[in-house]
Structures are given as structure tokens and as C-alpha cells.
Amino acid sequence: MSEHASIRELLSLAAAGVLDPDEQRRVEQHATVCDACRRELELWQGYSRELVRLPAPVAPKYLADRTRARVLEKRAAAAERRWDDIVLAVLVLLCWTVSLVAWVVFRLFNGGMSSVVESSFVTILEWLGASTLFAWLTAAVAAVMLGSRRGVRRIV
Amino acid sequence: MILAALMNSDGTLSAVDEAARLRRGDPDALAAAITRYQHRLYRYLLRLVADPAMAEDLFQQTWVRVMESMRSYNPARSFEAWLFSVAHNLAIDYLRKSRPESLDESLPSGQARADGLAQSAPDALECLLEWERAEAVAAALRHLPAIHREVLTLRFEEDLKLEQMAEIVQIPLSTVKSRLRRALDGLRDSLDRHSLPGAKQ
Amino acid sequence: MNRLAQEMRIIPRVAWLIAVLAYLALVAIVIFATGHDPKMQTWPSWGLAAFRGLMPLVLIPYIALIGYVNADARRRGMRYVMWTLLAIFILHGLGIILYFLLREPIITPCPHCGTLVKHGFAFCPVCGTAVGEACPQCRRAVEPGWSHCAACGAKLGNQAVPESSPQPH
Questions:
Q1: Min distance B159 CA to chain C CA atoms (Å)
Q2: For A114-142, how does the pLDDT look when each residue is reduced to its tens digit (9 = 90+)?
Q3: By the CB < 8 Å criterion, does B23 face chain A?
Q4: Mutate to test the interface with A, among B49, B64, B142, B150 (most CBs of A within 10 A)
Q5: Contact C147, A60 (CB under 8 A)
Q6: Between the ranges A23-32, B101-110, C58-67, C76-85, where is the mean pLDDT highest?
């Protein structure tokens, strides 16, 4: 490509001020000898000026406050959810432990420590199965009764 | 006391400390940061999506996302560049969903100027009076694809260097250069088409 | 931990008392059940003490939680008697878990008359004082960060965002 043609490619970028120093020098040197390119460069510089001088839109006054409120609210909600998750995890652990202890105490009465230590897996499962099933049934009934009155709570 | 120690000699808090305070979730630091960047960030988003209501919403989403991913922010990086790149991603996602055509560079206004243009043809901008030019440029901008508006506002209104622009738009430096050139060509083309009296259609 | 201490403070003293008594009772029961147990004679004495003393400890947090359910349901304006009974009688502590999943947000009293106003209201039903942000057009409650009212769609403009807006719990 001829020098003139390759310079023409760079004129808009030269006016935008993004060329390397060497490229910029090349363009300026060429512009001193080539009228057409000099004129073109001036035109592009006009565009650059207008773009810089564009009236800048201003952020509405309420935007900063409302953004801050939204961000803080989201963070509080996220922190709350994290706390709730921890609480639930601990509760589940506690409930399993209580069940285990209840079973042990029950067995102690029935057959003494030997029946606890030597229990077959099946008897443990029996206890677990029966009592858990019973607990779930009652909890399910309670949840249905309570849940049906709540309606949609999660919004936005 | 600690605050005084952290302040630079000109009274501004250094960027590292600001980032540290934001990471801790300091509400004052958040409010200060939002206020400091509000006009620039809003202007950037408005140029990108050309819809004030959407720009406001994206503005809020940007800050929410910034606070959420504060942990993955590398303090060595410029906070501004990161902030704007988050905004860029959100805006592009929105445009992809609602106006995918505005991400397409191959629209007529996105094509490079034909070299065979007569040099003596009157230039659209020059034919306009001083006070008409800003209006015409703003109108021409609206016809450009969003990604062209983006590089134009980053270069001319934000006054960023190519490297900073590349970081925000997340494309290689050479692509920024070529996209900027196409954007400028497209702008001039759009002005020719829409404002020049008796212009070629 | 701060949060934990804060929450634990609402557990009524009675609940702690019952918890300790229940613990002691269970220890007594376990001792009774294993007093003459042949298998247990083979255990070292610290093992016996651990088994009889530590295992029943689990009862204390369990009963304290039931007390928490009672007090927390009360301060949230829920039917606390029903919830306490559910927490007690549903096996394996599932009633407690159920409570945590279904509880209502915390209620803050109206700053003027002190009535407990439900979350989501913009004005106190008793004295009319504003307790939250309200839409300028339809006067319904709006949340901070909204750009438009969710009820009537009006654009929300330059309202002052209250510094201490009630946090959803």
C-alpha cells in the first residue's frame, strides 16, 4: 500500500490521539506535504472536538441515595440468609443428636447397656425409621396447615 | 486518627484503602464511592444503552455486583477500570437480551468509509452552524451500534488511553484501535446521511 | 458470635431453668438405668461419668431452643402458644426446624405510638405516622432501591431514603 493510502487509514485515529508517537509523527509529516490529507486530518479533528464537547448527561439526584439503599439492603439480606443457613445446619445436627440420645436411653431401659452396644443395625433402623416417619407425618400436617395461609412472600 | 494516617498529602484517601474499606462493607466508603463516580458511570451507561431508565437500573446493578465481588477485586488494578468493566458486562448482557442488533458492527453505519469518496465533497459537520453541531453529533451517535458508542465515549468523554479502554471492554488493544476507527467512520457516515442538506441517501 | 449472644438473650429464664432441671432428671434416669448394668461395670469410671453426665447435656440446648421459639414467636407477632406446642411435641426437634423455616419478619414498633406494625406497611394503622417509604401516587409501601412502585407503576423520584429503614428479617 502506498504511503498516502496507509496514512489516510490512520487519519481518524491520529485526530483521536491514540496513535503511537512514531505513527503520529509519520502522519504529521505527511500532512505537511499532502494537502488532501491535511484537510482530512482537520476534518477529523473537528469531529474529535465535537465529541469531547458533547453535553454530558448528569446523573439524577436521587440515584446515588437509592443505589446505596439497594446495595445495603441486598447485603443485609445476604448476611441474614447466611446466618439462617448456619442456624438450620446446627439445628439439624442437634436434632439428630437428640434422636440418638433418646434411642440410647430407651434401649438402656429395655435391655441395659448390652442391648445398646450389641444392637443389630436393623433394630437401630427400626427405631429410626418408625420415629422419623411419625415425626415427618406430624410435621407435614403442621406445615400444610401453617403454610397455606402465607401467600407469596419473596418479592423483587 | 487512622484515617489521618491513611490520607495522602492532598487529603484524599488512597485507592488501596478505599478498596479495603469497601471490601469490609463500610457504608460510608460505599456512599462516597457511588457519589464520586456517579456522573461518569451514569454517562457511560447512558451512552451504551441510550435509555435513561435502563441506565439507572444498570447503575444500581453495577454497584450491587461490585460489592458482591469485592473479594475477587485485585487491589493492584485500577478501581475505575474494574468498575467500568463490571458496568460494561452488565450493559452488554442487557443489550444481548433486548437489542442484540445494537451489538452488531456490520450495520450500514458501521461500515468503513468508502475510500473512493470525492475529497471535495462538503463535510457534514462543517456545513452545520456551531450551535447545531452538538445536536447533530448526539443524533448521529444514536444511530451507531452500541459498541461503537462505547469506544467513542470512553475515548473522548472519559479521555482514556487505549490500554485502559482495552481493559474495560475486555478486547485486545488492536481490536480497540480498529473498532475506534470503524466507530469514527460510522459517525461521519451517519452525519452525512442524516444531517447534510441534500445529502446522498 | 455477637449475633448468637444477641439472639440467646431473648430466651426466657424459665426455659433455662426447665432445661437444667430436665438435664439433671435425665442424668438421674440414666444412672438409674445403668446402675446395675453388668456391661457397664467394665467401663472405666471416667467413661461412666462421661456417659451419664455428658450425653444428657444435649437436652439443654434443645429445651433452650423451645424457649427461644416461644419468645421469638411472641416478638414477631405470631401465635406463640401454638408454635411452642409444636416445638415441644413434634418429634426429633422438627417442630423447631419448622418454626425457623416459617417465621415472620421482625416487627418494629411505630416510632410515635408504639404499636407493632407488620412488615410491609407504609403507615401505622393506629396513629398514621409514616413507618416506611411510600409511593407518591398510590401511597403504598415501596422498598428501598425500587425505581417504580410495584402497585401502581409510578416513577419513584426524589424521596428521601430513610437512614434506618426497617430491615427485613
A1: 31
A2: 767 776 667 777 777 877 787 778 777 77
A3: no
A4: B64
A5: no
A6: C58-67
Pairing of strands C108-109, C116-117: antiparallel
Give the number of residues written for chain B: 201
Name chain B's partners: 3 or more CB pairs within 8 A: A, C
What is the pLDDT, as a whole number, of residue C168? 43
Q: Do C101 and A88 touch (CB under 8 A)?
A: yes
Residues 103-162 (C) with a CB less than 8 A from some CB of B: 145, 147
* Residue A124 falls inside a structural domain: yes
My answer on whether A65 and A89 are in the same domain is: yes
Q: How confident is the model at residue B9 (pLDDT cuts 50, 70, 90)?
A: low
Q: Which three cell numbers stand for residue B104?
A: 452488531
- Structural domain for A29, as ranges: 3-52
All residues of chain C having their beta carbon less than 8 Å from the beta carbon of residue B35 are none
**Cα A143 to chain center, whole Å?**
31
Whether residues A68 and A138 share a domain: the answer is yes
Same domain, A65 and A20: no
The most confident of B80-89, C99-108, C151-160, by mean pLDDT = B80-89
What residue type is C41 in one-letter code?
Q
Residue A153's pLDDT is: 44
Does residue A72 sit in the same domain as residue A116? yes
Grid coordinates representing B92 are: 452488554
Which CATH number, 1.10.3720.10, 1.10.10.10, 2.60.120.10, 3.10.129.10, labels domain B120-195? 1.10.10.10
| Set of chain C residues whose Cβ sits within 8 Å of the Cβ of A65 | 160-161
Give me the residues paired with residue C155 across strands. C148
Cβ–Cβ of C167/A65 closer than 8 Å? no
Q: Which residues of C touch B60 (CB under 8 A)?
A: 145
Asked if B121 has any chain A CB less than 8 Å from its own CB, the reply is no
Residue A145 touches partner C, C-beta closer than 8 Å: no
**Torsion C7-C13-C18-C19 (CA) sign:** positive
* One domain, residues A30 and A47: yes
* pLDDT band of B121, cuts 50, 70, 90: low
**B67 to chain A: closest CA residue:** A71
Question: Is-contact B140 B193, C-beta < 8 A?
Answer: no
**Do the Cβ atoms of C69 and C83 come closer than 8 Å?**
yes
Q: Is residue A156 part of a domain?
A: no
pLDDT tens-place string over residues A38-97: 888 998 998 999 999 998 899 998 899 889 988 988 888 888 889 989 999 999 999 889
Count of structural domains, chain A: 2
Pair (A67, A138) in one structural domain: yes
To the nearest whole Å, the CA of C140 is away from the closest chain B CA by 21
Instruction: Choose the closest CB to A142 out of C90, C92, C93.
Output: C90
Helix axes B27-49, A61-117, angle to 10 degrees: 120
Instruction: State the ipTM, two decimals.
Output: 0.78
